[in-house]
Amino acid sequence: MSSKIGIVLLFILTSVNITAFAQNAEIVSTAYLIVEGKGLDITSGQNKRDYNITMIGGFAAISTTDLFKKSHIKTKFYFIEDDDAKEKQGFNQIADHIFMNVGKGCIIELFDNNTDKLLQRYRLQRVQSVPEIEIILKNTDDFKSNSIGRVIAYKYSNINLSPNTKKIELKIANNDTLKVKYQLINLKTKKKVYCGFLPAKEVFHVDSNIEYELRCNYVAQPESTVVKYINVRPHWYQSVIFYTLAFVVLSGFIFYIATLEFRNKIHKSEAEQKKLEEAAIRLQSMLNPHFTFNALSTIQGLVNTERIDEANKYLEEFSILLRRSLSKSRDVFNSLDQELEMMRIYLNIESLRFEFKWEIIVLPTDLYTTEIEIPTLLLQPLIENAIKHGVSSLRQNGKIRIICLKEKNDMMILIEDNGVWNDKVPFTGYGLAITRERIDTINKMQKDQQIHLSLEATNGTQVTLTFKNWINND
Q1: Quick check: 106 and 79 in contact, CB under 8 A?
Q2: Same domain assignment for residues 144 and 101
Q3: What are 374's strand-pairing partners?
Q4: Nearest to residue 103, comparing CAs of 181, 19, 39?
Q5: Cα–Cα nearest to 184, from 235, 230, 238
């Protein structure tokens, strides 16, 4: 069928024990009585004296005809729920106006005043009823196109419509004249999109992938409401499967881009790290010839002064120190305990020449020197300066102390001497300049762990190395 051809879907809004009426009159007239109300219908029983009057509205007005007034008639009136009232009470007057709840009713009996013969019996009952609504569907934007074809669906709770449906029209079916109240609710937003009264012609715009709730009831009987669910199916690109696939593809693409970017950053970081490590090793290697030259000068001094035994001992110590320094020549970092051991050998060698006193102190006891790493040979140039410019001229009165301290997450290494430096000698020398450059390079390698160098000359000289965030207390 062409997409421009509308389909009329008529569904009858009924349920068990609910009756809807095609002919809803407002006045029912018989020989003796006239009944006025909403949604009236009258049928006669097998006995022509009995009439069954049903009504949708709750209020009814009852009046008598001229024939009733001319005849000698007495009446009985009682509600159906008081069925035994017929025997308990005598004749009474007919109420002019009555109200009945849904499912309730009353009986009016007319008797001949002289013979007590039953002339007529009226059973009035308010039945539960809901309206029949006709829905006209259109799958094009041209709502004026002719509708061809009709499908009737009984007792449908859910109405599924094509995603191409653009508009729907509500109409009261079977020429019903009673006023109907309706509400159309968007279940996704929980808001009323349309509400009003029929039989006025109503045309609504609907969207695909939305479920609507249609609530209808007669204005005369608000107690009884019929609810239908209208589901406008989604287009293929609005389906859960499509959304899932789109999410998976998009997530995969984002993950790929993020992974690629992360790898590029890693490669760039690794290249920069390698470059900095090479620079640190290059600077470190520049110290080795300087250190070797100084050591050989010391040995030469011992030999020239004919201190052969001391020179031999010096050579032995120097060979041990040289092997250890060469083994670490390609390592940027070395454990603190190994560095301190190398400095012990170095201080012992130099003390043979200049006869000063020295000591290495580690405080506190929980400073685990085997687990802490510092740049390789970082201390040697600083100790060399303390010897050369501080205690070398003091001989046996010279003192050097190396103190390792811990303060929260920081570690400090102090190099103290009791010498008096010449004011003309600045805190700049070949070894010290390389040490500062090494520290700057290592600080670039480690953003979270920094090394700070400070020098102070008062009563002696103190060099302080502060290693920030160098100790993990976890």
Answers
A1: yes
A2: no
A3: 334
A4: 19
A5: 230
| Residue 86 lies in domain | 25-126
Q: What is the C-alpha to C-alpha distance for residues 122 and 111, in angstroms, rounded to an integer?
A: 12
In a domain, residue 251? The reply is no
Q: What CATH number is associated with residue 141?
A: 2.60.40
3-state secondary structure of 376: coil
3-state SS, one letter per residue, for 439-451: HHHHHHHCCCCEE
- Helix and strand numbers, DSSP H then E, in the chain: 7, 25
Q: Would 181 be classed as within a structural domain?
A: yes
Q: How many CA atoms lie within 13 A of 433 on its CB side?
A: 6
Which two structure tokens, joined as six digits, stand for 370?
A: 């085997």
Q: Specify the residue for token string 């095609």.
A: 22
Quote the distance between the C-alpha of residue 238 and its chain's center.
Answer: 22
225 and 293 share one domain = no
CA angle 454, 458, 462 (to 5 degrees): 35
Residues 6+ away with beta carbon under 8 Å from 76: 86, 89, 90, 91, 92, 107, 108, 109, 111
Q: Is 208 exposed, middle or buried (CB count within 10 Å of its CB: 0-12, 13-18, 19+)?
A: middle
Is the pTM higher than 0.85? The answer reads no
Tokens 């109405």: give the residue: 159
Write out the chain's pLDDT in tens, 474 residues.
333 333 333 333 322 223 333 345 689 988 899 999 998 998 887 777 899 999 999 999 999 999 998 888 999 988 887 555 455 455 577 778 899 999 999 999 999 988 989 999 999 999 999 988 878 776 644 434 334 333 343 346 788 888 888 888 888 877 778 899 999 999 999 999 888 888 767 688 889 999 999 999 999 999 999 888 888 888 888 888 888 999 999 999 999 998 888 888 877 766 666 655 555 555 455 445 666 776 777 777 778 887 788 778 878 877 877 777 666 666 778 899 988 988 888 898 888 778 899 999 998 777 888 899 998 888 988 898 888 888 988 889 999 999 999 988 999 999 999 987 655 454 556 677 888 888 888 888 888 899 999 988 777 889 999 999 998 765
The torsion angle over the Cα atoms of residues 437, 443, 444 and 449, rounded to 10 degrees, is 170
Say whether 55 sits in a helix, a strand or coil. Answer: strand
CB 400 within 8 A of CB 356: yes
